[in-house]
Amino acid sequence: MSYLNDVFYVNPNTKMLYKMTNDAVASGYPVGTNTKPQSVLVATDMSRVLVVNYGANSVSIYKNGTLQRTVNVGARPVGICESHNGDFYVTNFSGNSVTKIDGGTYTTTTISVGKSPRGICCSADGNIYVANYASGTVTKIYNGLVVDTITVGRGPSGICVDRNGSVWVTNVGSHTVTKIDKLGKVAATIQLTGAYPYGICCDINGNKWVVGYSRNMVYKLVGTSVTSKIAVGTKPSAVATNEKGEVYVFNSQDGTITKIVNNIVTDTINAGTSNIAADFGDPTGFQSYYIHKYNPSSTPSGSAIADGSVTFAKLDQNLQDMVNAGAANADNTKHLSFVLQDANKQGPNKVEHIVPFKATLDEITMSIPVGSTVTDPINVGIEYYMSGQWNEFDEVEIGPADTSVVKTVNPVDKTVLANSIVRCNIKSAQEDIKNVNVILKIVPVKS
Questions:
Q1: What does the pLDDT look like over 153-174, one tens digit per residue?
Q2: CB within 8 Å of 303: residues ≥ 6 apart
Q3: Based on the structure, what is the number of domains in the chain?
Q4: What is the pTM of this model?
């Protein structure tokens, strides 16, 4: 599991959780006797790391490197994911079930699925998808209930969901990848002859990365086409990516981690142990707290500024975004902000933010600093992603006569926006927008 500069992985032989910082193994934490840890997940609150213990039928929850508690689940747990509302779902390989762990109380509920479930992931609209290895199916769960069963290839193992709501499944037995559309229909089958594909993840640009266990390579899929085959270490079993688009391949036999940037292997990292494993659930970062979605067609560059935020240049749109993801304010809120500078008028400039889970959008503020000039109205349209599509929420406009405009979200709309991807569409006929501030105020939601 990868987030920012940290990568977490486990080893069932040493029974350890490892943390790698800046591509160097920095820390190791013992998980316990007879645990055989199988997968790991960084929670979206960025304070908890969850380890699935195949041998102990449990999940260990760490905070700041310290074991906080252990939650009992079903028989031989393998995969884990976090849902849109902060709950955790664990596949029980020998129990033919999924255990739901409440993210606040840690109480559990058992849901029956297909035979030998392995991979598991969650979509932005709350659907849980489970790859049933021995059944050759994917189970779809919503609100704790099984709502669909979809036939895929032989031996489905890894699974992830992209930002468009499509689900991607690796089938070890048939050496294929299955694409399932938002309607639950099989839309494509990609053949990877002799690959034994296990792990899969989706990066921030929508590309899919699939490990070829027997080929010692990773495949890059753009759409449904294989565009790259990149040699990695021996017997790769899992793959993860972070919000910067960096890809990490976990090579189970030789104990290395291959780092890939822009389709090029930039580092081979000694993991300090063989038989390493990353999660069979969703190691993609898809459900991680993405502060900012980089524009895929430019090279983002950043520099720290005085208030601890970072300025990122979106070169192809001449748009600068200032994203502040600092600690909570005194009133227990967070602000995500960005500054418009020199925006062009060739269609809307779109900036996407994902609101942290168990939080919602409370207020939108637009302001014009002293010395800036607005000659034409500037509109920020707010949209949210639900049920597989973007939905219009509201629009905030600031004009030449205004210094600031504040839009407060009412309680009903807060409920709608809770746990959603929020997109800002900035529109203006003015060619030279200078220093117009847009602030999204985020507040926590009580469990």
A1: 999 999 998 877 899 999 999 9
A2: 310, 311
A3: 2
A4: 0.68
